[in-house]
UniProtKB/TrEMBL annotation:
It comes from Candidatus Gottesmanbacteria bacterium RIFCSPLOWO2_01_FULL_49_10. Residues 1-110 form the Beta-lactamase class A catalytic domain. One of its GO terms (biological process) is beta-lactam antibiotic catabolic process. InterPro entries: Beta-lactam/transpept-like, Beta-lactam_cat, Beta-lactam_class-A. It comes from the Bacteria. This is Beta-lactamase class A catalytic domain-containing protein. One of its GO terms (molecular function) is beta-lactamase activity.
């Protein structure tokens, strides 16, 4: 689900193993008030809150937290947030793709700097150009904060 940004696992968990209502209740308990599992909608603020909770180990055990962060760090899609950042920068992120949609959200870390960045876009007509723009936005934010 994370490395290849494939939502099949999430779909199976939500619809056949755990249940949509239980997952929505859990998400709501974490304070993600703008995330709707049924309609596949969220907000940048909710993604920031979720990534902060993951990054700081608030959702699971230390070993599971490290495993999740490793998945977020080594994805099959490095063409957005991490693309133009210095090689020594760690990026823990998750992309989202649909027709006309291109997203990337995550935590950027290069000690002592640590920050969340979320790039959510819609009405995309050129995926490659949009990924390049996302990479340029990420680089500009990094350079400003550094």
């Amino acid at each position: 689900m994370i490395g290849q940004s494939d939502n099949t696992a999430a779909y199976i968990l939500a619809n056949h193993v755990i249940g949509v209502d239980k997952i929505q209740t859990l998400i709501n308990s974490w304070g993600l008030t703008q995330t709707d599992i049924v309609n596949n909608k969220t907000s940048n603020k909710d993604m920031e809150l979720l990534f902060e909770k993951i990054y700081t180990g608030q959702l699971t055990s230390p070993s599971s937290t490290q495993e999740m962060l490793a998945f977020f760090k080594h994805t099959d899609f490095e063409d957005r947030i991490p693309a133009l950042l210095p090689e020594e920068t760690s990026v823990y992120h998750k992309i989202g793709n649909e027709i006309g949609v291109l997203h990337d959200v995550g935590i950027v870390e290069q000690s002592p700097l640590v920050y969340f960045i979320g790039i959510l876009s819609s009405d995309i007509t050129d995926d490659k150009e949009s990924a390049q723009i996302a990479a340029e936005i990420s680089k500009a934010v990094y350079e400003y904060l550094k």
